[in-house]
Amino acid sequence: MRFSSFPSVRRSRLSTVSTWLVGLLAACMLSACGGGGGGGGGGGGSSSSSTSTSAATSTIAAAASNVLTINVQQGPEAGLINAPFVTITVCAPNSSTCDTVDNVILDTGSVGLRVLASAVPNSLSALSRIQLASSSQYLAVCGQFLSGYTWGTGRLADIKMSGESASSVPIQVIADSAAGSAPSGCSSGSANNYTTAASMGGNAILGVEGMILDCGSACAATPTSSYWGCTSATACASPVSTAVPMSQQMTNPVSKFAVNNNGVIIEMPTISDSGAATATGAVVFGVGTQSNNAVGSATVLQTDSAFNFKSTYNGTTNSSAFVDTGSSVYYLDDSIATCTSSGLANWFCPTSTVTRSATFSSNVSGATGTYATSINIANASSTIGSKNYYAFNDLGYKQSGTMDFGLPFFYGKNVFVKMETASGLANGYLAFISNVN
Questions:
Q1: pLDDT-based confidence at residue 193 (cuts at 50, 70, 90)
Q2: How many whole angstroms separate alpha carbon 259 and alpha carbon 236?
Q3: How far apart are CA 347 and CA 48, in angstroms?
Q4: Is 175 left (phi over 0), alpha (psi -120 to 50) or beta?
Q5: d(CA 345, CA 12)
Q6: Among 97, 212, 238, 358, which residue's CB has the most CB atoms within a 10 Å radius?
Q7: Is this structure's pTM higher than 0.85?
Q8: Whole-angstrom distance between the N-terminal and C-terminal Cα of the chain?
Q9: pLDDT digits (tens, 9 = 90+) for 379-419
Q10: How far apart, in whole angstroms, are the C-alpha atoms of residue 437 and residue 432?
Q11: Quick one: three-class SS letters along 283-349?
């Protein structure tokens, strides 16, 4: 679920948080701010590219201290499909005051943890408010989407995931009463205020895209609608948009691990083309840092400073293509027939399953190598039907000018997301390898 471009911010993503609802099947597109820079991360793996080979395979990692289980299953909203949920622990800094938060959406298209206040009842009051050194104001955070928005406080938290932990991470606490009501600069353009797990699709969004910060130097220099200052720690009557130092911006928690801090691998099983009731995979922390996260024979594709790549799909090339676990389907500009039934406008509904090929290459000058893949697009109406299934690998939605390879792309693959380093904004990469479950 990629965020929309604010001034000077590095990237733009489409997403479908609340619109994963099968019952509604309304494909409103969310967006949120992107970008990043700043410290943390680094090391691990090669940044060269290579050509894919169908013979190369890997496996889904076994349980380990750097492995977190992914469950695609029914979440807080019973109609949500293709939502990759993980469970994390949120604690007040340097304390044992904690909350275990389940139904956290794992998102490779955004940066940082955004958690509902209702999901952290024990630790909320002990989570330190972020106070801006330049103005002594207390930080409030806005996440703007095309179909809605999130508003809440900026706080510091310790985050534990499997055996890894990150200390004093800046996070957004959504629907926190201390933030008051959202200003018009955050809420304008939409009446949908995401304040519950049912409306957002989960209790939190864990953004692990290959960026360290969600905005970086741009938001440190110029006020945007992402960050706001409040004069009170307990009420925010008249928030003012403000610039925020990089050290206090929303941060990829993985970058703050002591080790295994340079990226993640998303490892998902192969599922039937007719869908599956549930699916279980893994997120492995670190890339090339230990034996269970080696790049090996995976195809490496260097990404640009927006963590995009070039994709040639169905004869059309798009230089802003991306892969995104936070998108529940493929979002593609294609002439495949769309559905005619009520509630399914713009979903693909071909008479029979259509197979398309796509070739990924780098936007970065001098980078070589390609990754070739094929995808299936099935009839959304008949595939979903009345089955009590939550995992699908062949659903798509028509979106002009877009190549968003959502969670269906991840099934049957290990997808490496190697994070940028502090010294460079275009030195991250993606890598792909088929798995044998």
A1: confident
A2: 37
A3: 37
A4: left
A5: 24
A6: 212
A7: yes
A8: 26
A9: 999 998 878 899 999 999 999 999 999 999 999 999 999 99
A10: 14
A11: EEECCCCCHHHCCCCCEEEECCCCCCEEEEECCEEEEEEEECCCCCCEEECCCCCECCCCCCCCEEC
Contact yes or no for 122/97 (Cβ under 8 A): yes
* Cβ neighbourhood burial of 221 (10 Å; 0-12, 13-18, 19+): exposed
3-state secondary structure of 165: strand
Dihedral angle, C-alpha 166, 167, 170, 175, nearest 10 ° = 90
Strands 57-58 and 429-435: parallel
Element spanning 280, H or E: strand 279-285
User: In the chain, what are the domain boundaries?
Assistant: 18-36+79-256, 263-435
Residue listed under structure tokens 């864990």: 206
Give residue 91's identity as a one-letter amino acid code: C
Please compute, for residue 4, the number of CA atoms within 13 A of its CA located in the half-sphere on the CB side.
Answer: 17
Q: How far apart are CA 116 and CA 96, in angstroms?
A: 20
